[in-house]
Amino acid sequence: MLTDRQPRSFLDPQSLARLAGVPLVARTPMVGGVSGRHASPHRGSSIEFAEYRKYVPGDDLRRLDWRAFGRSDRYYVKEYEADTNLRLCLVVDTSGSMAYGSAGTTKLDVARRIAGSLGYLAAQQGDAVGISCVADGIVQSLPPRRSPAHLRLVFDVLEAARPDGGTRLPEVLHELSETIRQRALVVIVSDFFVPPPELERAFNHLRFRRHDVATFHLLDPQEVGFQFQRPTRFLDLEGNTSIFADPVDIADRYHRAVESYLAELRRIVLATGIDSHRVLTTDDVEQTLARFLVGRASGQGARR
């Protein structure tokens, strides 16, 4: 696994080998530092034709289209799409609520697998990988870089991450919108326990800065199904407050609130145009990532 000989509990080599057959691509043009497989907003050298433009003195004569000259008696130069590398910025929620897991697997466990796998796949195709662990602020951050040694540091950050504290995810996303200087694929892995209007403004800010935004919305089956059968003490993992309630008395109101919350998130996804995936902690992570990669690969011909 590159030059990282240290075993990582959140990486499955066999799963990564199967996923490596599908490239991780950006939905929008990227601005990178080296040649790669992703579309660039600039013109350059590749096999994909972009457009004709009039010849100006100083242009490379090898790019003249002599057939166009024969038809129009004017000089035209062929322009091609430039291909560049990708900057993958992983944003992993490490607030207290990510510690929840009714089936033995916490949301942070799943977040590690998703972020670690995407980081590995991006590095394998020559892209730069960075990470920000966030809670009530940026807990730890590494800027995107292209090297096996840097990927090991990203894995170290993931491995050391612990769920703790409150959530100020919208504020952190606004900060990252301004501090990620060049266009990037920003992948956010979180349970998104924040007011949806604040989240919408943060997504719009990222999109305004021309970042390609993808989210993995992590939920535990009990958070959706609420299958508690007897009086239970419910603990706020971010504020440490608790309430004692009979699930039978509050189930209807709880389900209405959850449905309203999920409906509002669906509206935000459509309004902002982000790439969003809802994931239960019991879902197969490899299948989740396969759908994510295949969905992006199927639309990679679109240049926007």
Mean pLDDT: 85
Number of domains: 2
- Strands side by side in the biggest sheet: 5-4-3-6-7-10
Helix content: 25-40%
Strand composition percent: 25-35%
CATH topology of the largest domain: Rossmann fold
* Biggest β-sheet strands, sense, barrel: 6 strands, mixed
Topology:
Blueprint: H1 13-19, E1 38-54, H2 66-72, E2 76-84, E3 87-93, H3 107-124, E4 128-134, E5 138-145, H4 148-160, H5 169-179, E6 185-190, H6 196-208, E7 212-219, H7 221-225, E8 232-235, E9 242-245, H8 247-272, E10 275-280, H9 285-297
Parallel strand pairs: 3-4, 3-6, 6-7, 7-10
Antiparallel strand pairs: 1-2, 4-5, 8-9
General description of the model:
This protein has nine helices and ten strands. Residues 32-47 and 300-304 have low confidence and may be disordered. It is elongated. The chain has 304 residues and is of the alpha/beta class. Helix content is 37%, strand content 25%. The longest helix is centred in the last third of the chain and has 26 residues, at 247-272. It folds into two domains: 13-25 and 85-295, von Willebrand factor, type A domain (Rossmann fold, 3-Layer(aba) Sandwich); 38-84, no CATH class. The strands form three sheets. The chain has a six-stranded mixed β-sheet, sandwiched between helices.
Short characterization:
The protein has 304 residues and is of the alpha/beta class. Helices cover 37% and strands 25% of the residues.
